[in-house]
């Protein structure tokens, strides 16, 4: 984890149905048009092994999954993803845009499940060393609207089947992290039309491109 990072690392975050997948496509497309070399990926997932872990994590099941098991599986998938995909891409000068990263762990396992944040931080340091996203694009939306959007898409996974209070805690945890890390986070109002959401995202990307040209 001591490699020198050259590309920029962007994560796209938010609760259920806020439009991460939809807007990730827009981000990749926009960066490519600006001639930025970019790799698109997601968490949990991003490599064959990590995608298998994702399936295990999302599958609805009767057995009650322990919080520690869930946390360790998230970081197991992440460790593999970092080694196989994210770090080599950054090292090669590519920008990496990731649909969720460790901020999701703080929001879901920390805020949603109520796990102690210092336990998450221990694993974050073990797995990532000092690697953190350069920019976190947080799509923020009232929970009810996000759940409605997610439900329209079909069957709910193990996380989507949680009670609404869980997602309210997730949203609060994201907003709290955004307030604590204003240099990394950009909050996007995801309740607006897709056009307006993407106009806000474009401003964030233009800023990043200008910053990277000044370095
Ligand atoms: N997880 C993940 C953890 O608990 N800890 C972790 O560390 C990590 C990494 C992963 C699950 O794992 C959990 C969190 C998650 O529950 P996921 O697939 O990444 O699952 O996350 P989901 O939130 O389930 O992703 P979704 O696919 O449900 O939501 P998206 O990607 O945010 O939403 P999207 O783009 O599919 O849009 C949903 C619908 O809304 C429409 C779209 O067309 C689509 O139909 N839409 C809009 N409609 C109106 N106006 C707009 N502005 C719209 N934008 C999108």
User: CATH topology, which one?
Assistant: Rossmann fold
Summarize the helix and strand pattern as letters.
Answer: EHEHHEHHEHHEH
> What hetero molecules are in the model?
P1-(5'-adenosyl)P5-(5'-thymidyl)pentaphosphate
What low-confidence regions span 5 or more consecutive residues with pLDDT below 50?
A: none
**How many domains would you count in the coordinates?**
1
Q: What is the CATH homology-level superfamily?
A: P-loop containing nucleotide triphosphate hydrolases
Tell me the helix content. Answer: 55-70%
The largest sheet has its strands arranged as 2-3-1-4-5
Instruction: Give the N-to-C terminal Cα separation.
Output: 22 Å
Which key features would you list for this structure?
215 residues; alpha/beta; Rossmann fold; 5-stranded parallel β-sheet; 8 helices; binds P1-(5'-adenosyl)P5-(5'-thymidyl)pentaphosphate
Write the layout of secondary structure elements.
Elements: E1 9-13, H1 20-33, E2 38-42, H2 48-58, H3 67-91, E3 95-99, H4 102-112, H5 117-128, E4 135-140, H6 143-152, H7 164-180, E5 185-189, H8 194-214
Parallel strand pairs: 1-3, 1-4, 2-3, 4-5
The structure holds P1-(5'-adenosyl)P5-(5'-thymidyl)pentaphosphate.
Structure explained in plain terms:
By secondary structure, this protein is α/β, with parallel strands linked by helices. It has one domain: P-loop containing nucleotide triphosphate hydrolases (Rossmann fold). It contains 8 helices and 5 strands; from the N terminus they run E-H-E-H-H-E-H-H-E-H-H-E-H. It has a 5-stranded parallel beta sheet, sandwiched between helices. The longest helix has 25 residues. It starts with 8 loop residues before the first strand and ends with a helix. The mean pLDDT is 94. The structure holds P1-(5'-adenosyl)P5-(5'-thymidyl)pentaphosphate. The site of P1-(5'-adenosyl)P5-(5'-thymidyl)pentaphosphate has 27 residues, from helix 1, helix 4, helix 6 and helix 8.
């Amino acid at each position: 984890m001591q490699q020198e990072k050259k590309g920029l690392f962007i994560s796209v975050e938010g609760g259920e149905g806020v439009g991460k997948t939809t807007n990730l496509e827009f981000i990749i497309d926009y960066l490519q048009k600006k001639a930025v070399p970019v790799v698109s990926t997601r968490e949990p997932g991003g490599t064959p092994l990590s995608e298998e872990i994702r399936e295990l994590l999302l599958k609805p099941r009767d057995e009650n999954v322990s919080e520690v098991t869930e946390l360790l599986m998230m970081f197991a998938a992440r460790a593999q993803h970092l080694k196989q995909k994210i770090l080599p891409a950054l090292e090669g000068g590519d920008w990496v845009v990731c649909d969720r990263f460790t901020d999701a762990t703080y929001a879901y396992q920390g805020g949603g499940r109520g796990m102690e944040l210092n336990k998450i931080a221990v694993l974050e340091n073990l797995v990532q060393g000092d690697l953190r996203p350069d920019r976190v694009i947080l799509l923020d939306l009232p929970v009810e609207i996000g759940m409605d959007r997610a439900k329209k898409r079909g069957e709910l996974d193990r996380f989507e089947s949680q009670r609404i209070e869980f997602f309210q805690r997730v949203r609060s945890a994201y907003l709290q992290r955004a307030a604590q890390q204003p240099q990394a986070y950009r909050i996007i109002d995801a309740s607006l039309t897709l056009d307006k959401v993407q106009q806000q995202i474009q401003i964030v990307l233009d800023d990043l491109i200008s910053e990277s040209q000044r370095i």
